[in-house]
Automatic annotation (TrEMBL):
The chain crosses the membrane at residues 39-58, 185-206, 226-249, 360-377. PANTHER family: UPF0699 TRANSMEMBRANE PROTEIN YDBS, UPF0699 TRANSMEMBRANE PROTEIN YDBT. Keywords: Membrane, Transmembrane, Transmembrane helix. This is PH domain-containing protein.
Length: 486
């Protein structure tokens, strides 16, 4: 059997970085302390030394791993020892993260997840291991799925190779390959709505400015004209947009997607190269989404839903497999990668909203509460909140107009929703449906309406896809099919 190995010493740096991230408040206590002779200061310094250096060193020294032909075995724990045995057939995703400082040493971080992983961490995290480790894991995964009874040539009876990993076969030519070009990457960055969180961060920084400085800025601004004030606001928005654009470019730099050996491999990133490998038979569904900017420009983003947190850095925690693509070529581009997708835009008129008014009414009722509060708290400014009513009405109409769906075949269900100015189209293999239900209130019986809810697995949670205010007969037709499917 292969001898247990430790990760590279550079892995200790990542353990230290994680400790600093978890216990950063200790640094704040030290920096804000002014009495360097007190016992409290030296007590905090001792805790700091243990938390940032001794404890990470102990964790690194006690973590070993074995890449065996039948499973991955990870030994960890300082005071309580943990022995994790992960069969290859149970692995959902393998994620490789390679920071720029690891590239010269041909090292990377490997994260392994199964369907039973916790929210906080994957089953196994190997920091700073040779890049051949992930290749060997993927090799054994393919052997486990294609030839489960085959034995590996590396056994205890072969002393010459007993301490060496099995040779990794040459990487086969991918059956399908895509690499983003510079123009599409720029489109993706410019149409991303991630600038909104950046804008909120900039506004939050204003609260950190000393009050004297903030008051001086307000006094200076009061002497400026309305045009200059509006111009300042536009500059802040542009700064947030530029920051989001650069952030998106570095995250999706040199994006690649390939399919080989029944696996999808997505790789991206400038400073940190992030590669996720997901078996095609473990995909829970495909999501094609468009925010309002991409709807105007006829662009779409394609993601796959997997039962892991490997895509936690991506939008909605779903693995991006096509960052941006024109509407006209979506299906012919994606079919070589996911062959059960339709070859063209399907007809989704089987499931449509019967009465749009109900969606409009509901969204207007939601904003009625904040409007009432604003009128009560600030009567002189409450009239400004009335602008929320037409916005809510338009959002309700958008949701109703974009609700659609159909059973495309006994093996594929398509559901489309619209919320928060974003259209999402789900393609769900019917064997991946966890449950389905039809709900209706006592008032909806009179109007022959119903809600259809389809549940699938998403990360470590449930993804509920709800189509509201459908014709009751259409919703029950899908539900009856689900009950009697073979």
């Amino acid at each position: 059997m292969t001898k247990p190995k430790r990760t590279h010493p550079l892995g200790l740096l990542q353990h230290i970085a994680k400790s600093i991230k978890d216990y950063w408040f200790l640094l704040i206590l030290v920096l804000t302390s002014h009495d360097y002779t007190s016992i409290w200061f030296w007590g905090i310094m001792t805790i700091l030394l243990v938390a940032f250096f001794i404890w990470p060193l102990a964790k690194w020294l006690t973590l070993t791993y074995v890449i065996a032909p039948d499973a991955i075995v990870v030994h960890s724990g300082v005071f309580v020892r943990h022995h994790e045995h992960i069969p290859y057939a149970r692995i959902q995703t393998v994620q490789n993260k390679q920071w720029f400082y690891l590239r010269p040493f041909k090292l990377e971080e490997v994260l392994i997840e199964t369907a039973s992983h916790s929210d906080s961490a994957p089953e196994a995290r190997l920091t700073a291991v040779p890049i051949t480790v992930a290749q060997l894991i993927n090799h054994y995964r393919q052997v486990a799925t294609t030839a489960p009874t085959a034995t590996d040539p590396q056994t205890d009876d072969s002393p010459a190779t007993a301490t060496e990993p099995a040779p990794v076969t040459a990487t086969p030519q991918p059956a399908a390959y895509y690499q983003i070009n510079y123009r599409d990457l720029v489109k993706f960055g410019l149409t991303s709505l991630i600038f909104i969180p950046f804008l909120l961060v900039l506004l939050g920084l204003y609260n950190k400015i000393p009050h004297k400085v903030a008051d001086a800025l307000i006094d200076d601004a009061s002497h400026l004209g309305l045009t200059l004030l509006i111009g300042g606001a536009i500059v802040i928005v542009l700064i947030a947009w530029l920051g989001a654009f650069l952030w998106t470019l570095t995250r999706y730099y040199h994006f690649e997607l390939s399919r080989s050996n029944h696996q999808l491999v997505a790789a991206k990133g400038l400073f940190q190269r992030n590669t996720v490998t997901a078996p095609l038979d473990r995909l829970q569904g495909v999501r094609i989404k468009q925010n309002i900017l991409r709807q105007w420009l006829h662009l779409q983003t394609i993601q796959v839903l997997v039962a892991s947190k490997a895509a936690s850095d991506d939008d909605d925690n779903d693995l991006v497999v096509m960052p941006v693509i024109d509407n006209a070529i979506v299906y012919r581009t994606m079919q070589p990668f996911i062959q059960w997708l339709p070859s063209q835009q399907p007809d989704l008129s089987a499931l449509r909203v019967a009465r749009s008014w109900y969606q409009i009414r509901n969204t207007m009722l939601v904003v009625a509460v904040p409007i009432a509060l604003l009128w009560w708290l600030w009567p002189s400014w409450g009239w400004l909140s009335l602008i929320l009513l037409p916005i809510a009405a338009l959002q309700g109409r958008f949701a109703a107009k974009n609700t659609a769906g159909a059973l495309l075949s006994p093996k594929l269900l398509a559901l489309q929703t619209g919320h928060f100015w974003e259209r999402e189209l789900y393609y769900i293999p019917t064997e991946k449906i966890q449950s389905m239900k039809v709900t209706r209130s006592i008032w909806m019986k009179r109007t022959h309406l119903a809600h259809l809810v389809v549940n699938i697995r998403h990360g470590n949670h449930n993804q509920a896809i709800e189509l509201r205010y459908l014709h009751a007969d259409a919703a029950h037709a899908i539900y009856d099919w689900y009950l009697h499917r073979t």
